[in-house]
Design a protein that fits this description.
The chain is an alpha/beta fold. It starts with a strand and ends with a helix. It has a single domain, classed as 3-Layer(aba) Sandwich (Rossmann fold), CATH 3.40.50.300. Helix 3 packs parallel to helix 4. The chain is about 35% helix and about 30% strand. The strands form two sheets. Strands 4-5-1-6-7-8 form a six-stranded mixed sheet, with helices on both faces. Strands 2-3 form a two-stranded antiparallel ribbon. It binds guanosine-5'-diphosphate (GDP) and magnesium ion (MG). Guanosine-5'-diphosphate (GDP) binds next to helix 1.
């Protein structure tokens, strides 16, 4: 029985992909961040030029499930790399930045691209940086996302808190294995 899964963390630069994979990986994370020469963002001075890679093993009923975690380059490069990356992909975590004005557009863009090419791959939406919103903003965001992507399970995540990411990985594993794990 296959128990080795390729999981993609997809989202724009700065959303928290590298932080999230670092937080849960039990193996040394391989990152390809380099100093940025052009300014996409004022807050960050590194950007992902390739992939992050980490590993997360879940033990269930005496069986180990290895989740291979890949941080996928932001939207700028997504269109070019997507076909290659999705090969053998078992599950997708779509990371969306709660503080970014393009949050809903991002979700529409990614869910449409993904549905078109791999409509059956289990996918969940992880909303990052919600700690920077107030309660009302969070409620408004929740209803906009429900309208846009209500058919995907949604989680509020803090990339710096490993248990919130582990929850998402466990949910995704359930979806992949059909609750066998
Ligand atoms: N406040 C807050 N900051 C976060 C959260 N997730 C990530 N960050 C911060 O966002 C910045 C960019 O994260 P990074 O992992 O480099 O993003 P990447 O470009 O997607 O790999 C880092 O300084 C993180 O600490 C979150 O949920 N809340
Ligand atoms: Mg990164």
């Amino acid at each position: 029985m296959k128990n080795d899964y390729k999981i993609l963390f997809i989202g724009r630069t700065g959303v928290g992909k590298t932080t999230a994979i670092n937080a849960v990986s039990q193996s040394k994370v391989i990152a390809t961040d380099v100093a940025m020469t052009t300014g996409y963002s004022e807050q960050k001075n590194t950007t992902t030029v390739g992939l992050d890679y980490g590993e997360f093993t879940v033990k269930h009923s005496n069986q180990n499930y290895l989740m291979r975690l890949y941080g996928v380059p932001g939207q700028e490069r997504f269109a070019y790399s997507w076909e290659i990356l999705q090969k053998g992909c078992s599950g997708i975590i779509l990371l969306a930045d709660a503080t970014h004005k393009s949050l809903v557009d991002d979700i529409i863009y990614y869910t449409n691209s993904i549905k078109k090419s791999s409509g059956v791959t289990p996918m969940v939406i992880a909303i990052m940086k919600h700690d920077l919103l107030n309660t009302l903003e969070k409620q408004q965001l929740q209803s906009r996302i429900d309208e846009t992507a209500g058919d995907f399970p949604m989680f509020w995540i803090d990339a710096r808190a490993s248990e919130t990411i582990e929850n998402v990985l466990n949910k995704l594993l359930h979806m992949i294995t059909g609750s066998g794990a």
